Amino acid sequence: MTTPVAPGVSQLRIQRFVNVYFVETDRPGAWVLVDTGLPGSEKSIIAAADQLFYKGTHPEAILLTHGHLDHLGAAKALAAHWKVPIVAHPLELPYLTGRAQYPPRDPTVGGSLAFMSRFFPSQLPNLEDAVQALNTDDPTPPYLPGWRWLHVPGHAPGQLAFFRDEDRTLLGGDAFATCDHDSIPSVLLGTPKISRAGTPFNYDWTAARQSVQQLADLVPAAIGCGHGPVITGPEAAAGLRQLAADYPVPAHGRYVTAPARTDASGVEFLPPAPPDPLPRQAALLGVGLLAAGAAWLLTGGRRAGRQRRPSGGRRG
Q1: Domain extents in the chain
Q2: Which fold has domain 2-269?
Q3: pTM over 0.90
Q4: Which of 48, 86, 193, 314 lies 20 to 30 A from 297 at CA?
C-alpha cells in the first residue's frame, strides 16, 4: 500500500525498512521511480505501480538518490523489465559500475545499526549497461519538470535530493531520515523523527551536516526520505531546521575527525580504521564456548563412565 506525500507523489515502504517513490510528471499517466529498495523488491514495486496507475504501466526512468544496496537493489531487474534508463549523479557511477567500492562502513560509531552493519553485504549489482549520468549542467531532473535536484554528499559521494518549489515537497534520500535511523527497532516501527542518516555509512560528517543545512533552508512542507514515514505540515520544516541547528556528530568513529575523500574515480583517501572490539570479543566468546563444551564433554564422559561401572559389576 502506498502513502501520499504530496499531489502526484507516493511513498512505498519496502520490507518495513526502506522507501521508494512514485512521482508523476507533467504528462497524464507518466511518472518516474525514485530509488528501488532492496534486492528482490521488484515484484512489490511493479504491483504497487500497477495499482497506483494502471496494469502494465512503466516509468519514464528510474532516478537513484544514491547507490547503496538498499536504494539500487531492484534497479537492474526493474530497468530490464520496464526497458527504461537508470539515472544517477556522475560521482556515483564508479560504485554503480563496479569500478570502485564505497568508503567502508564504520561499525565503531555505536548503535544497533552500526552493530548490524558488520554483517551487511558489500557487493553491489553492476549497473554498467543500464545506468546513465545525470546532466549536472541542467538543474531539472530528467522527466521531472517543476522539480530540481540538489547534490547532498556526506552519506554517499553523489547523493541527490529532489525538491518541488511549487509546494515545497522534498525527497531527501539519505541526507537525513524521518525516523531514528541509528535504531533498527525505530526504523522497523516507522516512528516519525527527523534525524541524521545512518551513522555507520556517513563518510564525511562535515559534508553531511552541510547537506542538512542546505535542505533545511528550503523550508519543506512535505518530506519523504529513504528511511522513515512521510512527514508533512509545520513539523517538517521545524524538525529539519532543528536537526540543521544542532546536528549530532558521534563522539568517536573512523570518519569523525577526518573524512574519506572521493573523486570521479572513487575513493581517494581513507583515514585509518579504529580498532573494532567485536572480532576480539567474538573470538574470546568462541574460545569460552569451546572450553565450556570441552569441559561438558569431559565431565559428562566421566559421569557416564561412573554410571556404567556398577551395572557392569552386577552382571559379572
Answers
A1: 2-269, 276-316
A2: Metallo-beta-lactamase; Chain A (3.60.15)
A3: no
A4: 314
